[in-house]
Amino acid sequence: MDWQSWILFLHATTTLAMTGLIWFVQVVHYPLFAHVDAAAFCNYAAQHVRRTGLVVAPLMMFECATAAWLVIWPPSAETATTSYAGFALLLVAWISTALLQVPCHRRLESGKDLATIQRLIASNWIRTVAWTGRGAIALLLLAA
Fold this sequence. Notes:
With 144 residues, the chain is an all-alpha fold. The chain has helices at 3-32, 38-72, 80-108, 114-143. α1 (3-32) packs antiparallel against α2 (38-72), α1 runs antiparallel to α4 and α2 packs antiparallel against α3 (80-108). It starts with a helix and ends with a helix.
C-alpha cells in the first residue's frame, strides 16, 4: 500500500469515527445533560469536557492532518474539488466548535442551565451536518 492509500484510509477512519461520535453526542449524550442533577452538574460538565477531549483530540488532529494532506496532494485531479469540499466542512466543524460549543461548555461548568443546554444541542447540528458530509466525502475519496 502506498502513502496516498494509507492517508486515504487514515482519513476515512478518523472522519467516520468523528461522524459516529458526533451523532452519538447529538442524539444521546447532549440531551441527557438536562437529566443530570443540578448538585452534581458542575463536576459532570467538567468531567465531560476532560474525558471527551481525551477521545476527540487525537481523532481531530489526525483528521485535520490527513484532510490537509489531501488538499495539498489530492489523490487525483478529479478528486481535488472533493478534497477541498471536505476540508471546508472540517473548517465549519472546527469554527462551530470554537465559537459555539466551547462557550456553551464553559458556561455549563459553572452550573446547570437548561437554556445553555438547549443552545448546545441546537448549535451542535452544525457539526453533525458537517461531519456527516465529511463522512460521505471520505468514503467517496476512498472509493476513488
